[in-house]
Amino acid sequence: MMIKNNFRPYRQPKKSNNYLIMYVSFVIVLVFLIGCKRESVSPPEPKPVDPPVLVIEKANYYVAPDGSDSNPGTIDKPFKSWDKIVSVVKPGDLVYLRGGIYYKGTRSNYAACYLAGKSGNPGKYIRMWAYPGETPVLDCKDLITASGVVGLRLMNSNYWHIKGIEIKNVYQIYNTSTKRGTDHVGLAISNSSYNIIENIKIHDIGGPGCGIAGTSTENIVKNSDFYKNYDPYTVSSTTGADYHGGNADGIHISALKGTVNTITGCRFSENSDDGIDMWQTDGIVKLDSCWSFNNGLDHGDGMGFKYGETTVAYEDVTKRYTSHCLAYNNKGMGFDQNDADAKMEFYNNFAYKNVGVGYYMSKFNLKNTFINNINYKNNNPKALLTAESVNTNNSWNGITISDADFTSVDMTGIDGPRKANGNLPDVNFLRPSSNSIVIDKGIDVGFPFYGKAPDLGIFELKK
Predict the structure, then answer these.
(1) Distance between CA 445 and CA 289 in Å, rounded?
(2) pTM score, whole prediction
(3) Residues 380-406: pLDDT tens digits?
(4) Which of 34, 37, 57, 327 allows an S-S link to 334, with CB 3.0 to 4.6 Å?
């Protein structure tokens, strides 16, 4: 049986000649206009990008260099001293510090600013912030004494959020009777917990830029810079010999056992002793995305990351966590165990061009963990680890690296301005090149990554 095909092809109806002439004329004119437009009109200029809008929350109190502590602390009649606020703030309050130079505050206690005995609550921090777009600077050059002094002391105070300040010039003074100088500190946090220290700068201190001590736990120091701290008059406490530069670290942590303190997104550079030192810390320290470079002057050790002495052995307890940290061009070791008798974990770190060993972690037969790390061009090319360590997918596990594996080995920008949100700057330094051997050579340890597996080192190549 034959099936009839009912399909009929579409036929264009005939147009009149007048209609055809009009159509052709329209096409010619359109082509002409398009051609003229291409020849005569330049590409549009890109629209200017508006600067980010500063969100300025109304504060409870204001402080300004030209204020007075007898004022009510309003925006038009601000206080003058940072520590004046201790007498008035309550949990949840916001205090704005206006930009400019501040000198010694109203209290003595060997501190330019003394914040003691006043706490916020969970979810209701006492916020002492730089006024948006401005930088308040605590200049301690007039705080002259041979006794140990502090720029800002946070003592027995919890739930503070301090953001956007700068502390400088806590000078170490020579004591003619003891023939030495007492170490000073830029920011001292003692017996204080649950505090956030954010986006601060501390420099030119005659001792550690920041010290965390005592029963201080769950503090977070983030997106901050500690640099050019130097103690020129220190002598050895055991021999009495010159030990100039031997105690000025970027950060010094000496917290008791049971504590946890986190340092993230920070830079430690050109300090006369170490970038960060955890001497006699029995608590837990977590380090993430920190850069430590160019440390070590005079008698200073010059370690990038020094993991300290523990007062007792913690051979089955992990007390140190380090991830995505860079140790570069330090006078001593990049990552130095020192006398820390506790387990440690290292993920995606990079030791580059340090004068000593990149990773010196070979004491006490500890079962440390090393995964996805890079060790490159340190004076001693080996990573010195215990035989018991978990040690896999690192650059020293059968991978040969060259300069071509990185977009740049020039440190330009490493000490440059931070991003608007306070994060570390984007740099090409030690970032994997497109054909780098380190790409996808890691294993998944819980951090975000691109591609089929994590890259080795501190940076991921976006694919």
Answers:
(1) 16
(2) 0.87
(3) 999 999 999 999 999 999 999 999 999
(4) 327
Tokens of 16: 């009149």
Does a structural domain hold residue 56? Answer: no
Cα dihedral across residues 420, 423, 425, 431: positive or negative: negative
Q: Locate 170 and state its tokens.
A: 């806590």
Q: Cα(141)–Cα(452) distance, rounded to whole angstroms?
A: 54
Q: Name every residue whose Cβ is closer than 8 Å to that of residue 440 and which is 6 or more positions away in sequence.
A: 451, 452, 453, 454, 455
Structural domains of the chain, count = 1
Yes or no: say if 140 and 170 are a contact pair by the CB < 8 Å rule: yes
Which string of DSSP letters, residue by residue, matches 334-367?
A: SEE-TT--EEEEEES-EEES-SSBSEEE-STT--
Question: Which H helix or E strand runs over 230?
Answer: none
In the numeric block, which tokens belong to residue 301?
A: 């050790």
Which DSSP state fits 279? T
Asked if residue 48 belongs to a domain, the reply is: no
CB within 8 Å of 180: residues ≥ 6 apart = 174, 233, 234, 235
Range of the domain at 384: 100-399
Encode pLDDT of 418-431 as tens digits. 999 999 999 999 99
Flag whether 173 is in a domain.
yes
* CATH code of the domain in which 116 resides: 2.160.20.10
